[in-house]
Amino acid sequence: MEIHARGYDSTLSLRELLSGIPPDRLSAALTVLLGGPARIVSADGAWVMGDAPPLAENARRLPLVHDLETAGYLETAAADEARVRAAANLLELFMRSGARYFMASEMHIEVVKADYEELQRRHAALAESEARYRALAENLEERVREQVNTIASAHRQLYQAEKLASVGQLAAGVAHEINNPIGFIRSNLGTAQSYVEKFRSVAGQVKSGGNAALLGAWQAADLDFVLEDFPSLLQESVDGADRVARIVSDLKGFSNVDQAEEEVVDLNDCIRSACNVAAHQINSRADLKLALGELPPLRCKAGHLSQVFLNLLLNAAQAMKERGEIRIRSGVEDGQIVIRFSDSGCGIPPEILPRIFDPFFTTRDVGSGTGLGLTVSRDIVVSHGGHIEVESKAGAGTTFTIYLPLDKA
User: Fold this and answer.
1) Spatial separation of the C-alpha atoms in residues 69 and 63, rounded to whole Å
2) 178: burial class by Cβ within 10 Å (0-12, 13-18, 19+)?
3) What DSSP string describes 272-285?
4) Which of 79, 294, 303, 393 has the fewest Cβ atoms within 10 angstroms?
């Protein structure tokens, strides 16, 4: 540490060198010591202390030396040489003591200043380090929260994936088992229709053949009514078989919910498939009304979005305390595909509404739901770049709105 004290470079004035001694007391002491008046002046003749008026012309003048330089003079009319020399020596001792005092004072100030600056520097370094550690801690907390959310999301997705995989395997097995008998039933019904046409072709010949016994048997069996009614019976059976085939097709679509590949689909078809799969749970609770507008093809995971639609349909059906209505509308708004599921059910209380997407939150009885349906539905929609909103009023129904960007097409 470098210290620069004024005492080292002899820049102290005579007044400063003697500043530690009260002037009045020093003047009085010199007067007593010398036996007469005296005064002290600087090297340039300026009065410092003692008698202010000039002394007699015969006054003696002794130099006061400090660091080999004349700092001032002692002027006195005293005649005793020894006393004058003693007074000058005493003043030089005072000057040297004053210089040491100033040097020590300057060094102390320099040391204190240097210590203060060092303390300030360390304080700044500690403040910077504290800020850095605080930012690191905050960043660490944020990263921990992100990791926790990621793990929780992965856990939900794994749980749902396992559930969907099981459902998919079951649906695929059921669809396969139903599809085979429906296939040959449909084929047999078609063959039966062709057989009826053959009976119809010979009916005229039987009636015009003149065989009374055969004609009597025909009329007794009321085969005219049979030929009239049998085609309609077969057609109803064909329509029923076709409907079962469509349901099987929809089940096969739902059996692929765990597929990771994206495909280009019309979401209206996914909505219809979800409605067909949920029909047995909806028909007994609500009237289903579709208002599906034209939608552009969308590249997406169709099985996952179909699961979202099914979850919303089943939630709407379960919200019905008495028979009501479920409405599904689709269309394009502001460059987005918008799908709304509205019901006339019991609605959601305001205090519960902010929590409906929380994992494992459910208002159903214990054992009747996992509380993951809406959470997973939201995650699926978000993974497609969209979002889902909900509006509800207790006792007046609920509307879930799904927004999906068109740039996924």
Assistant:
1) 9
2) middle
3) HHHHHHTHHHHTTT
4) 294
**73, 100, 121 - which closes a domain:** 121
* Residue 231 in domain: no
Asked whether residue 104 is domain-assigned, the answer is yes
Sign of CA dihedral 227, 233, 237, 239: positive
Indicate the DSSP class of residue 316: H
Host domain of residue 103: 6-121
DSSP string spanning 203-262?
HHHHHHS--HHHHHHHHHTTHHHHHHHHHHHHHHHHHHHHHHHHHHHHHHHHTTTT----
- Residue that finishes a domain, picked among 92, 121, 150: 121
**Distance (Å, whole) CA 162 – CA 159:** 5
Report d(CA 206, CA 215) in Å as an integer: 7
- Per the structure, the count of domains in the chain is 2
Give the Cα-Cα-Cα angle 55, 57, 61 (nearest 5 degrees): 70
> Whole-angstrom Cα distance, residue 299 to residue 154?
23
The model carries a pTM of: 0.47
Q: Which amino acid belongs to residue 19? A: S
CB 241 within 8 A of CB 185: yes
The token pair that represents 324 in the structure block? 């009501």
Residues of the chain with pLDDT under 50: 1-10, 166, 257-258, 366-370, 408-409
Residue 252 contacts residue 182 (beta carbons within 8 Å): no
- What's the gap between Cα 155 and its chain centre? 19
Q: Quick one: which of 51, 44, 97 has its CA closest to 75?
A: 51
- For 298-345, write each residue's pLDDT tens digit: 998 888 888 889 888 888 888 888 888 999 999 999 889 999 999 988
Give me the half-sphere count of Cα atoms (radius 13 Å) on the Cβ side of residue 288: 23
- The structure tokens 């793990």 sit at 151
381 contacts 390 by C-beta, under 8 angstroms: no
* 341 and 271 Cβ atoms separated by less than 8 Å: no
Q: Is residue 286 part of a domain?
A: yes
Is residue 376, in this structure, part of any structural domain at all?
yes
Q: Which CATH number does the domain housing residue 321 bear?
A: 3.30.565.10
CB 402 within 8 A of CB 388: yes
Burial class (CB in 10 A: 0-12, 13-18, 19+), 2: exposed
Q: What is the DSSP letter of 392?
A: E
